Amino acid sequence: MAKNTVGVVGSGTMGAGIAHVFALAGHQVILVDLRKELLDRALAGISANLERQVKKQAITAAQKDAGLAALRTATDPAALAPCSLVIEAVSENAGVKKQVLKQIEAAVSAECIIATNTSTISVSELASSLGTPRRFIGMHFMNPVPVMQLVEVVSALQTGPEVTAAVEAAAKAIGKTPVLVKDSPGFVLNRLLIPMINEAVCALDSGVASAEAIDACMKLGANHPMGPLALADLIGLDICLNIMEVLHADFGDPKYRPCPLLRRMVAAGRLGRKTGSGFFAY
C-alpha cells in the first residue's frame, strides 16, 4: 500500500495504537472521535508512547516528530473523505459499529477500503450493514498495537479478494505480520487464548493453586512471557468475559461457559490494570 491517507475511527487504546503505527510508517492519519477531549487524550498517549520508543532507541527523535506531524484529528466523519483505508475501532457493540460504519461509508470515496478492528463480532454481519460490502474486511490488531506483530485479516463472505490482498499488503507495510483467517467466532487467537485464560480462572476458583502459582506454571512450564491471570488483567476482565460469552453463545458448547469467578470479578468492578485491581493489585 502506498503512503496514502488512513483514517481511524475511535481514539481509545486500540484506535490510538493503530493511528500510532500507521503514522510512524509514513502515512497521513486522520483520527476521528466524538469529542475533542478524547482525541487530545489519545494524542497525548501516542506522544508518550513514541517518546518511550525513542528512549529505548527503537526509533529516532526525528521519526517521532514526523509521526506526530502526520497525525490530525477530527470530530466529524466527513474529514475521512481523502482516505484510501479507514479502520473502525469503536466499542465492541454490533449496533454501534454498524451505525459508525454507515457514517464512514457516507464520507469516503467508492474506492476506499473500510475495515473493522472487532475481536468478537462477525465481520460478515457488519459487512451487511454497508451498501458496498465487497470493500469491507476485518483487521484485528493486538494490544498493545505498537508492540504486537500479529494482525488477523478476516474476510467477510462478501469481501472481494483484491481487498484482502490490499489489506494484507498494508499490514506488511507497517511492519506487522498478517495472518488470513475465516470469519468465525473469536477468529483464531481469541478462540484459543481466552478459553485458556478462563480455565486458569476456573483453576483459581476451585482452589487448585494461587494466582501466583498458576501464572508461574505457565511461565516456567510453557515458556509464556506472562501468566494467563496477569494477561487477563492486562486485557481487561470485562473484555475476557465478553469474548467468552460470544464464544459460548455462537458455538453453544459448554466448554466455552465463562467461569463464575470471572463474572463475579467483573460485577465487582475488578477489571484488571485499568481499575488498579484484578487477579493482582496494581
Written overview of the protein:
This protein has 282 residues and is an alpha/beta fold. Helices cover 47% and strands 14% of the residues. The protein has helices spanning 13-24, 36-55, 61-69, 94-107, 123-127, 161-173, 189-205, 211-221, 228-235, 237-251, 260-267, and strands spanning 5-9, 28-32, 71-74, 85-88, 113-116, 136-141, 150-155, 177-182. An eight-stranded mixed β-sheet has the order 3-2-1-4-5-6-7-8, with helices on both faces. The radius of gyration is 19 Å and the shape is globular. The mean pLDDT is 97.
Ordered list of secondary-structure elements with their pairings:
Layout (H helix, E strand, L loop, with lengths): L4 E5 L3 H12 L3 E5 L3 H20 L5 H9 L1 E4 L10 E4 L5 H14 L5 E4 L6 H5 L8 E6 L8 E6 L5 H13 L3 E6 L6 H17 L5 H11 L6 H8 L1 H15 L8 H8 L15
Which terms would index this structure?
282 residues; alpha/beta; Rossmann fold; N-(1-d-carboxylethyl)-l-norvaline Dehydrogenase, domain 2; 11 helices; globular
Identify the CATH architecture of the largest domain: 3-Layer(aba) Sandwich
Query: Order of strands in the sheet with the most strands?
Result: 3-2-1-4-5-6-7-8
* Unreliably modeled segments: none
Helix-and-strand structural type: alpha/beta
SSE sequence, one letter per element: EHEHHEEHEHEEHEHHHHH
Arithmetic mean of pLDDT: 97
Please name the fourth-level CATH homologous superfamily of the largest domain: NAD(P)-binding Rossmann-like Domain
Shape: globular
Fraction of residues in helix: 40-55%
Round the Cα radius of gyration to an integer and report it: 19 Å
Looking at CATH, which topology of the largest domain would you report? Answer: Rossmann fold
Q: Cα distance, first to last residue?
A: 41 Å
- What number of structural domains do the residues give? 2
Q: Using the coordinates above, name the CATH class of the largest domain.
A: Alpha Beta
Q: Identify the quaternary structure here.
A: single chain
Task: Summarize the main sheet.
Answer: 8 strands, mixed
Care to count the β-strands?
Answer: 8
